[in-house]
Amino acid sequence: MKTFLLIATALLVCSCQTKEEVDFIVTNANIYTVDDDFSKASSLAIKDGKFVAVGDSEEISKKYSAEEQLDAGGKTIVPGLIDAHCHFYGLGQNQQVVDLVGTESFEEILERVATFQKERPSEFILGRGWDQNDWEVKEFPTKDKLDELFPDTPVALVRIDGHALLVNQKALDLADITIDTETEGGEIVKENGELTGVLVDNPMDLVYRVMPPGSLEQAIQALKDAEKISLDYGLTTVNDAGLSREVIELIDSLQQVGELSIRVYAMVSSYPENLDYFLNKGIIKTEGLNVRSVKVYGDGALGSRGAALRAPYSDKPDHFGAMVTPVDQIEALAERIAASDYQMNTHAIGDSANIVVLRAYEKVLEGKTDPRWKVEHAQIISQSDFDYFENGIIPSIQPTHATSDMYWAEDRLGEERVKGAYAYKDLLDKAGMVALGTDFPVEQVNPFLTFYAAVARQDVEQYPEGGFQMENALSREETLKGMTIWAAYSNFEEDEKGSIEPGKFADFVILSDDIMTMPVEDIPNLSAEHVFLGGVQKK
Fold first, then answer.
1. Percentage helix, strand, coil, to 5, in the chain?
2. Residues 68-81: what's their mean pLDDT?
3. Does the N-terminal peptide bond of residue 317 adopt cis geometry, omega within 30 degrees of 0?
4. CB under 8 Å to 215, separation ≥6 — which residues?
5. Residue 134 and residue 154: Cα distance in Å, rounded?
6. Does residue 6 surpass a pLDDT of 80?
7. Which distant-in-sequence residues (6+ apart) come within 8 Å of 184 by Cβ?
């Protein structure tokens, strides 16, 4: 008996010693791994910032030990969420200017601007977020009242989509914009032979050039503010759709010294100085930063009637919108980018802009293997053009655009043309995947609104009843993939993130409810209770 006890004790000690020590173990969870089989698990183990095992709680506990463990209490865990199209730095910048989101009249805008200037006096007043489609009078504002309130201080107020700008006379004077100023790729809006103060698309740059440059401290604060907001919603990777070399290098510097942790897929803005630098330098890749794509600007936005359409706007005859980048330049950019290792991601809203981009892609990508070029927004597609997406082109789409725009989209497009708008299921069927984002701060940062809009095709007021063109709704599984593994794939990062599998970064989110089974109408109230980035808890 004594010998037996000694052997048993030795075996027990040996068994304990065979457990692999890891940094962190989570048990008793409802885990959607989003692997190839969309399998589920109840436990995961993490070491050195990566998943080392995913499976049953009992099996994980037998094989691994860790000083830090978490009983998830049955809570739902999903991979770290990826916003496939946003303006991360822009979100941070917005925290430093007048917030005009949600204003219901031009009078409310004036009140907010006046209050901001009183509390934080500025030599150049900046604001963003107005949308005339939310007002009782759904027309562009004019500068008259701004001129009265601020005759000596320039004011520039950006529309929510970033494609229109309202400025006062002082700002027009600084930018040397007169009634005779001519520009391409946009509009200097006039009424009765006079400037209204509204600039659409390219003419906005004339004002941006005379704005005072922000300080380094302001840029750093903007990035940190944007990170906090994003992480709080469960976003662990953000695709910033259009950054300068200076901001990209600042992000890299902050990540290297541990001042910024969120992962960034940076699309380089297609200005010549950026292209000359990055295309020559090649891909830049760290664990936190991936620079391997170019953001090209095709046309404007539908809300400001800048989207390039094949036929006139239904609510503005003889107006077609406009290409921000001319067709020949789109084609030249495609040729140049195709000759590099970079991916081309082009903003295309209108059906005319989309076909220009799709044809350019088809021409230069012939014979290329796995380019993964994207059409950002792919918002209005002619029925005959969906087939282009069968050739490996990835639609990068934002479901909340459909629910925000549905109040007036048919007015802009007409009954027939609107059938090819926000057609997410049709795009998925052709492309085999879709990458989902928000386009924040154009829309809200909240990724659960993205999920809800994709599945329910309604806004938070549950309008319209029954959902908007429900034949183009996505399933919950398709939507979660679009916010995780498909988004990662679109970034060439599917081997390191986007699912909860051994060897990948331990980026994951613990949710307040089960996103895959909860009542669909409750999804907008979902929250990210805990957020982990590389195995480190950020919330």
1. 35, 25, 40
2. 98
3. no
4. none
5. 25
6. no
7. 202, 322, 326
